[in-house]
């Protein structure tokens, strides 16, 4: 059956219009029965009742379709108009002719078309009604039923007038509905945009808060390191010059060996303090290309002072080619250090941590920090980069959150692959600036300097 589903854009209007049309139809059927029962002098009351019964079946089908959100014969407005016109003309014919009160049903039919469809359909319906009225007049004349012919133009003018008014009103309502719809869509778009911007601002605020906390931690660490360097530096210098002075006195071989050993240990203390101070100085904001392996090495140089490191094996397997990436070098060092310290925390004594690069697509490098620790469950992975997610008693849960911000600022991405109990591999994807710059000769596996 040629039913038309109600499309979503015009849906509201069509549903409302269809509900009005169905009510008009039922009203017409009921009124028709009242008119038949309450009047005498009809040409054939039985025929009128039969036509009304047909009309009731049609109204019933229409109602069922309307309840399902569809329009019965919705794609055939002209067919419906012709059918209704014939139906009304027959009612008039079997009632009392041109003066039958059923002639006003033409008005109801035109109203329905004007509400449901457009002006063109309304005009075509009107034309079929005019033709039907003329045919009816001719048939009645031929059958000797003269009647009052003046009712013909009057009926037609009133129907045309009401149809025009209804079509104009329906058009205005449709246009207003469309304008409201457009305004509503624009409002929803603006609201979504506003919500997106607020979410962005909240995220930016969170990021800057987290970075502030991290920076404060680093500043406190820097202050402490500088203080220790200052306090230890002077006695260290004094001890150093004392040892050198004693060595200049040409001591016996045994003392000379011990003094050399003491000097090398003093050197080691000086280097350690130097590295701590260098790391804890405020991060240089300089942006530019830098060698990836150097930033990684800086991080490992600091990680070795973390006490549990001595029970782990850290393997730096960065490839022989020196890759340059773009960004703030100190930031990448901070990120790698955080990943390495997390990996140390996740592993037990004898645990293994590996750093390596992969080049899956040209122009990009993937730095992997892989450990054989306890790994991460899926729910934990989903919350990993959210601020304040931590499973450590003294953790802040900001390390990975800040790491993600720093990597994204470099135009890169960070992520993790892991399953509970079988280690974790954190990856950082960065765009490379240039490739294949020969690296200075160095070992492919660098174990962290044992802390003695
Ligand atoms: P914090 O170290 O202060 O807890 P992070 O953001 O650096 O903050 O880490 C968040 C959490 O992610 C850690 O508490 C830990 O549970 C988990 N995590 C990070 N790295 C690993 C890893 N390599 N293996 C297992 N869990 C990890």
Question: What structural keywords apply?
Answer:
11 helices, seven-stranded mixed beta sheet, two-stranded antiparallel ribbon, Helix Hairpins, 452 residues, alpha+beta, Heat Shock Protein 90, rod-shaped, binds adenosine-5'-diphosphate
Describe the structure.
This protein is of the alpha+beta class. The protein has three domains: 11-149, no CATH class; 206-279, Helix Hairpins (Orthogonal Bundle); 287-446, Heat Shock Protein 90. 62% of the residues lie in helices and 13% in strands. It contains eleven helices and nine strands. The chain has helices at 11-38, 45-67, 77-94, 105-116, 119-142, 151-248, 253-280, 292-303, 329-346, 378-383, 399-409, and strands at 4-5, 70-71, 287-291, 313-317, 321-328, 352-358, 364-371, 413-418, 424-438. Strands 3, 4, 5, 6, 7, 8 and 9 form a seven-stranded mixed sheet that branches. Strands 1-2 form a two-stranded antiparallel ribbon. A hairpin with a 5-residue loop joins strand 8 and strand 9 (424-438). The longest helix is centred in the middle third of the chain and has 98 residues, at 151-248. It is rod-shaped and about 155 Å long. Mean pLDDT is 84; it is low at 435-452. The structure holds adenosine-5'-diphosphate. Residues 338, 342-343, 346, 371, 373-374, 376, 384, 389-392, 395-401, 424 line the site of adenosine-5'-diphosphate.
């Amino acid at each position: 059956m040629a039913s038309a589903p109600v499309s979503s854009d015009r849906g509201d209007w069509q549903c409302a219009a269809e509900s009005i049309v169905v009510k008009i139809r039922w009203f017409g059927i009921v009124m028709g029965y009242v008119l038949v029962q309450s009047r005498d002098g009809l040409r054939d009351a039985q025929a009128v009742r039969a036509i009304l019964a047909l009309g009731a079946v049609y109204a019933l089908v229409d109602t069922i379709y309307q309840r399902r959100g569809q329009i019965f014969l919705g794609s055939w407005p002209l067919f419906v108009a012709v059918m209704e016109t014939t139906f009304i003309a027959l009612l008039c014919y079997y009632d009392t002719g041109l003066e039958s009160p059923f002639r006003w049903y033409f008005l109801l039919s035109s109203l329905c078309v004007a509400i449901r469809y457009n002006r063109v359909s309304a005009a075509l319906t009107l034309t079929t009604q005019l033709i039907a009225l003329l045919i009816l007049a001719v048939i009645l004349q031929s059958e000797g039923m003269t009647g009052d012919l003046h009712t013909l133009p009057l009926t037609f003018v009133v129907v045309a007038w009401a149809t025009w008014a209804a079509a104009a009103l329906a058009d205005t309502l449709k246009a207003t509905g469309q304008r409201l719809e457009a305004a509503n869509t624009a409002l929803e778009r603006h609201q979504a945009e506003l919500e997106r911007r607020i979410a962005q601002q909240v995220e930016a605020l969170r990021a800057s808060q987290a970075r502030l906390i991290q920076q404060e931690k680093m500043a406190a660490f820097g202050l402490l390191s500088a203080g220790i360097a200052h306090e230890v530096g002077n006695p260290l210098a004094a001890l150093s010059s004392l040892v050198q002075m004693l060595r200049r006195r040409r001591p016996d071989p045994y003392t000379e060996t011990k003094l050399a050993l003491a000097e090398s240990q003093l050197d080691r203390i000086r280097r350690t303090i130097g590295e701590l101070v260098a790391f804890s100085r405020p991060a240089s904001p300089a942006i530019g290309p830098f060698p990836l392996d150097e930033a990684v090495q800086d991080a490992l140089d600091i990680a070795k002072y973390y006490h549990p490191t001595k029970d782990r094996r850290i393997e730096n397997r960065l490839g022989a080619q020196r890759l340059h990436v773009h960004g703030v070098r100190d930031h990448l060092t901070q990120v790698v250090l955080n990943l390495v310290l997390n990996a140390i925390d996740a592993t037990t004594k004898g645990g293994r941590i590996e750093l390596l690069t992969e080049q899956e697509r040209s122009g990009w490098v993937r730095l992997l920090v892989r450990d054989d620790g306890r790994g991460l469950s899926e729910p934990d992975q989903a919350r990993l980069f959210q601020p304040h997610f931590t499973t450590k008693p003294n953790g802040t849960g900001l390390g990975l959150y800040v790491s993600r911000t720093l990597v994204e600022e470099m135009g890169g991405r960070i992520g993790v692959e892991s399953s509970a109990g079988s280690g974790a591999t954190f990856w950082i994807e960065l765009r490379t600036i240039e490739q294949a710059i020969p690296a200075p000769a160095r070992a492919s596996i660098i174990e962290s300097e044992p802390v003695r």
